[in-house]
C-alpha cells in the first residue's frame, strides 16, 4: 500500500478505516487482493443499492460497450438517453402522478444540488435558502453552504453566505419543533430574515446521523413553503432510489416537492449520474446556462434504464421494508442490551444505525466489524452513529450474517 501513502492526497478517508486493497466484488460482497471476502454494509455510500456488478445491469452495459455505442455526448440526443427518459417517465413519474422535467447535471449529487439552488434563486429572484441542522448536501461551495457539519464547512476557505439554518425534526432534545417561529420570522419585518427562495431538506439525514423527519413534520414544512411561496427542494441523493422502501423517500409523507435531487444509485451500477427534477413551470434555464462536460454519460443511462426495469419487476419496495423491519428489530435489541452505551436506533428502511453515548465507540464498532469481515461506516456530527447501508438486493441469509457481526462488534467495542 506504499504507493497510496506516497502518492495519494492526505484527503483520503475510507481507506484509512479499511486497510486493505480491494480487487473484485459481486452482489453484497467485496474481495481484497488476497481473496478475503467482506460483506458490504456500506454499498458505495448508497451508490450501490442493487449491489456490486448486478448481472442484469452488467449484461446491458457490456453489450452497449461492445457495440461501440455512444459513451460521451454532453447533452446531445442519444438512443440511450431517450430510453432512460422514456423508462423513467413510465416506471417512476407516471405511476406517482408526478409532472417533472429532468435536468441532467454534472455526474454527482453535489452537482444536482448546485443546479437546484441556482434554479430556485433564478426563478424567485431571491438569494436566501433555508437549510437544517446536521444537513449534508455536498462539498462544492453552494451545497456546502447548506451543509451543517463544521469540519466540512471549514474546508471551504471562504464565507458561506445566503443561508438561514433552522432546527431539524427532533433536534431540540427529542422535541419536534413546530414552524411557529419560522413563520413568525417570515412575516415580521423586524426579524432580519430575507424572504427565502427555497427550503432544502433530507427526509432522513444520512451523513448527519440518520436523523429521520416525521411525515407530519415534512407535511407542515411543505405547507409552510406553499403559504409563503418558497420552493421546497428534497435532497434524495442518498435516500432515494428505494433506500427507505419507496422509490422516493418523501412518498410516505404525501408531499410533492418542487425540486428533487437524485444521484448515487440512480445509475444502479455505481456509474456517475445525477439529475435534478423540477416542476415544468420552474424550467426557466437559458440554453447552456447551467451545464457540465459529463452530464451525458451514456453508459450510466444504460444501467439506469436496466435498474428501473429491475426495480419495476422485483417487488423491491416490499422487500426493503421487510428487511428494514429485521434490521430495526436487531438494532432495537442491541440498544436495549447496551442501554447505557447506546442512546437508540436511528433511520428507516435499509438506512439505519445505532447512536452511541461516547462517539468514539461507533468508530470502534466499525473497526471491529472490519476485522470480522463486514464493511460499515460512522455518521453524525461527531461520528457517533454506526451506520448500516446494505444493498437492497442483499439476501436474508446475508443480512442475518451481517447483523450477527454487528452484534459481536458492538460487544467487543464496548468491552475495549
Automatic annotation (TrEMBL):
Assigned keywords, A-Z: Aminotransferase, Pyridoxal phosphate, Transferase
Pathway(s) the chain acts in: Amine and polyamine biosynthesis; ectoine biosynthesis; L-ectoine from L-aspartate 4-semialdehyde: step 1/3
Any single Pfam family the record assigns to this protein: Aminotran_3
UniProt signal peptide: none
Top-level class of the enzyme under EC nomenclature: transferase
Names of the cofactor(s): pyridoxal 5'-phosphate
SUPFAM superfamilies: PLP-dependent transferases
Matches recorded under PROSITE patterns: AA_TRANSFER_CLASS_3
EC number, UniProt record: 2.6.1.76
Alphabetized InterPro entries for the sequence: Aminotrans_3, Aminotrans_3_PPA_site, Dat, Ectoine_EctB, PyrdxlP-dep_Trfase, PyrdxlP-dep_Trfase_major, PyrdxlP-dep_Trfase_small
Family: Belongs to the class-III pyridoxal-phosphate-dependent aminotransferase family.
Protein name: Diaminobutyrate--2-oxoglutarate transaminase
